[in-house]
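HUMAN: Quick job: go over this next protein and say how the chain folds.
***
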Amino acid sequence: MRRLGIAQLDDDPLLREPTVEFNLPAEVAVARRIVAELRARAADVRAVHAFRKGMGLAAPQIGFGRRVAIVHTPDVRGPIVLLNPRVVHRSAADEVRFEGCLSFFDVRGKVRRPVHLVVESQALDGTPRTTRFEGSLARLVAHEIDHLDGVLYCDRMAATDVLMPVEHYRATEAAGNY
């Protein structure tokens, strides 16, 4: 992933820093430029790896400390763009599943996440949006919002769990459906 321009945990401190919100619509040109770069990098990544369960990419992963991420799912055409997102509600119900990350791609770890989220975000013109995300899409969105807060999925793992090499993870068939 490093050769595709994706920041790696072992060498990019930006992955651990909270991002800066956009002042929309005043910063619409900056937001458009970063969203275009996210789309381009995501296309590059998807060209070399098939993500049957979806994938996301946050601005810090491509060198921008701004509050924007995109999420691709297998069943939605085009990415979901999250500008200035913040979680306003988490379900009490949660589940533990394996997650991976483009910034440390060769391992997977078990993470507890809510089964649904309500997220407030903005359109490019600054219009507020409120969206409810369910199931695996909620997990993807939560993962990307964590990136925007400087949190990585390994930070959310139970203290007794360890990262699993991707080869071992694939052999467990614990992938589940998204």
In short: The helical segments are 28-48, 135-148, 166-172. Residues 2-95+114-151 form a domain with the Peptide Deformylase fold (CATH 3.90.45.10). The first strand starts at residue 55 and ends at 58. The two ends are 22 Å apart (CA to CA).
